[in-house]
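Exercise 7 asks you to align residues with tokens for two separate proteins.
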Amino acid sequence: MAASPEVLRYSAFTDTPAGGNPAGVVLEARGMTDPGMLALAAEVGYSETAFVTPRAGGREYDVRYFSAEAEVPFCGHATIATAVALAERNGTGDIVFHIAAGAVPIHTGRDEAGAIVASLTSVAPEIFEVERADLEAALGLLGWSSAEIDAALPPRIAYAGARHLILAAGSRQRLAELDYDYDGLKALMLRLDLTTVDLVWREREDTFHARNPFPVGGVVEDPATGAAAAAFGAYLRELRLVRPPATVTILQGHDMGRPSRLTVGIPDDHAEISVSGRALRMGP
């Protein structure tokens, strides 16, 4: 009987074990089947587990992401966790992940405190209008009214490797009160091919708070969502809500008791968005 693959456990976008978003990391997934990866991700029980197959001759890897219920096209926090795990094993530097949507360049290095920081560069982003009926359905399932949306940040679907519906709350209180129709929102998200709903509130020009319902992955809420952060950076640039080049901070997970910090780099052209953060090993 073949040995079970080793699963490393990391928490991404945090510098404390009590924060961030946990991810499973399998650094040698060669030969694993799709049902096998899905079953192992369900056993791990995190919002995503990354499965890595090294390519011959260098620092390039094929990476797939599975939640407890399905494969997802891209996962930012599992990417950061995997990059840090590889840097701890092989040393820091530049690597490339090949995902379903294309190549994702990643740089790992050490910050002033000596901790490893990983910075991913998204695939080419896109922004889409939201059909009025779909927006009304989403608001109804979330229990939001149209009057509670920040008119300065209009709803959009944003893509930077995965699709996210962006809805901006007009107040911090509205963002804090998350109570939604799980099954109804899941069905809508599956129909619209959404990975999360990215609920945000703007504290100031360069700082946003976020919450990400993730019922399509079998999770009520994600405490740190790198893929959504990349998509949101593209959204801010497309709608001219920041003046690039810009860096914005996204604070996520605070309402869940797992505070996370994501740093988003927005270049001044149509280039891809970067998302940076730390990741900590959990357990042995």
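Second protein for Exercise 7:
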Amino acid sequence: MNLHRIFAFRELDDEPKPFLDHIEDLRTMLIKMVIVLGLAMTGSFFFRGALTHFLQAPLAAVDIHSAENLQSLGVADSMMISFQLAFYAGLTVSLPFLLFFLTEFILPALTPREREALLPTAVAGFALFLGGVAFAYLVVLPQTLAFFYADARSLGWSPTWTVREYYSFATQFLISFGLAFELPVAVLLLVRIGILDSAKLSKFRAHAVVIILFLAAVITPTTDVITLMLMGGPMYVLYELCVVVARFVERRPESQA
């Protein structure tokens, strides 16, 4: 397999290509994605100790005893959880490259206007994903853990969580917030290619609130109102930011003319 040929950037050609050539391009893109994701996952696996401490830090901030006494009930929990953490960490680390390969594949099929919007959209999408994960890790996850810990204590229970349950909850929580923060990317991409505009975004603001709350309820791994508000609130703020940015995007071509 010629890795230099596989990882070489495709030349932008607006001429129609045979169907089999598109299949070959798709196969090449998938091979590159698998290789990069596999390398990122392998590297992340060797840092599994650091990853586990990183994810346990919010719990330790709530109760150091609970963090130090997570229960392992499965024989293979250490390896299974390590593989899961390596997958999520590898996916996050390799995401810019995966977006690059995807962009490279779909770029020839786009119009010049769509091509202009694609690269900034990909960069903004990755930055917002990391922002959502950071916000969840630093703000929301510790408060959510503290809420459930205090709620269990109020019932006279001693919270003793298993490693499988805790890491599954924490990773789903962080990924959910990362995905939720992608809302502006989807909205602004639709604005940039002319499907939406600031007037429509302002007109359907009430509908957007309902949709945001629904999405927050679906992707949040918990059912408490506090977490729902902590996710839905920033999403609504981002939506309002989209309205402002949409107005700027609409005026920019006029100012450049």
